Amino acid sequence: MSKNKVQIFDTTLRDGEQVPGCKLNTQQKLVIAERLDTLGVDVIEAGFPISSPGDFTSVEAISKLVKNATVCGLTRANEKDIQVAADALKYAKRPRIHTGIGTSDSHILYKFNSTQDKIIERAVQAVTYAKTFVEDVEFYAEDAGRTDNVYLARVLERVIKAGATVLNIPDTTGYCLPDEYGAKIKFLKENVKGIDNVILSCHCHNDLGLATANAIAGVQNGARQIECTINGIGERAGNTALEEVVMILKQHPYLNLDTNINTKLLYSTSQLVQQSMGMVVQPNKAIIGENAFAHSSGIHQDGVIKNRETYEIIDPADVGVTESSIVLTARSGRAALAYRAKNVGYELTKIQLDDIYPQFLKFADHHKEVNDEDIHHLMELNHISKSKIAV
Ligand code: KIV
Ligand code: ZN
Q: How confident is the model over 309-326, as a mean pLDDT?
């Protein structure tokens, strides 16, 4: 793997699917898994096989189907979970077991009523056992975001020795600030023996709206895998959004980091996940929201009509959106009205535009949006017919 390649680990079907109301059946998961494989993700976390018979069946079916990506199954740090995951993954071309345990004081004390040393023992045992089934074992230090860095480094050094190939540093509660999370990755890169032989992975939650910023801080400091979901869905406020990190790396080439994602499939993949899960994203969602390439104020519309780049940093075609949209509202100017009228066949002269514009504003003041049908009606009222060559 090139030093500058960031692996995309998609957990839409595991962290994403555990969201209330987002439950999918096996058939729906297969459709999404096939699409993720085509999109170019490096790893598909297909589920948590021991959690239910349905999840086991889905992970097994996805393992048979996926051609390119590594297929991963989640476990806790115990033998039964690991055995079941290994069984569910047995048909995968590239199987990965993702095992781990909580490492923060709060997890050690309240979840496990244990001690730091005993947690290290359990972590090592889990990785050692997982290695008896598969070569590729990812270890997660749950709540690493709130784990003391020196202790975290001790845990990781031991699981690397036990054979872990990827180390996941989850900000499970979405607590970290970007510079704090970035510094954590840097500290681990500099202080863990053997770290250069494994991949560090960012798994960030969005409780403070920082999941994407934290993942980017992670890769800027040496992590080479990002765990993310389509549309940023996931436990509570969600995970890092795949489409966001991929486009950040693409739009900032000086970072010298890239992914294997075919960005032209981002919009349609987002639609597929929204429809299958019945979880519609907010219109202002970055990259794939309905308003991500819509311009409604007169000043912006005038700029975009003259040159798209005045108000857009991404070419919509790059993420599979057909074109930018000029939305007609009471905030729109003459340029936008002329542009939209031209799109439906009316080439307005300056005099016609000056006549119609006040009528348009009056109408727009009473409606959220002015659509093509309204434009036709306005033209009819003013006895304006379509130009010979409609554009
Ligand atoms: O958020 C988290 O810590 C997780 C782990 C199970 C990887 O989802
Ligand atoms: Zn998570």
A: 96
Residue 55 amino acid letter: D
Tell which atom from ligand 1 comes closest to the C-alpha of 11. Answer: 8
Q: Which residue has tokens 């940093």?
A: 313
The pLDDT score that the predictor gives to residue 387 is: 85
* 376/342 same-domain check: yes
What number does the ligand 1 atom closest to the CA of 14 have? 8
Same domain, 37 and 146: yes
The residue contributing the CA closest to ligand 1 atom 4 is 172
For the segment 358-391, what is each residue's pLDDT rounded down to a tens digit? Answer: 999 999 999 999 999 999 999 999 999 998 654 4
Residue 220 CA, distance from chain mean position: 18
Model pLDDT for residues 92-138, shown as the tens digit of each residue: 999 999 999 999 999 999 999 999 999 999 999 999 999 999 999 99
**What radius of gyration, in Å, describes the C-alpha atoms of the chain?**
25
Q: Whose CA is nearest to atom 1 of ligand 1?
A: 172
- Is residue 142 in contact with ligand 1, taking CB distance under 6 Å? yes
Cα of 284 from ligand 2 centre, angstroms:
24
pTM to 2 decimals? Answer: 0.95
Ligand nearest to the CA of 173: 1
Q: Give distance in angstroms: CA of 172 to centre of ligand 2.
A: 6
Closest approach atom of ligand 1 to CA 142: 3
What does the alpha-carbon distance between residue 122 and residue 142 come to, in Å, rounded to a whole number? Answer: 13
203 lines ligand 1 (CB under 6 A): yes
Nearest to 242, CA basis, from 276, 265, 222: 265
The residue out of 244, 277, 310 marking a domain boundary is 277
CA torsion 196→227→134→38, rounded to 10°?
A: -120
Counting residues of the chain whose pLDDT is more than 70, the rounded percentage is 99
Domain with 162, as residue range(s), is 7-277
* Same domain? 43 vs 166: yes
170 CB under 6 A from ligand 1?
yes
Token readout for 193 is: 């023996």
Domain-ending residue, one of 250, 277, 304? 277
**Residues 317 and 370 grouped into a single domain:** yes
Residue 2 lies in a domain: no
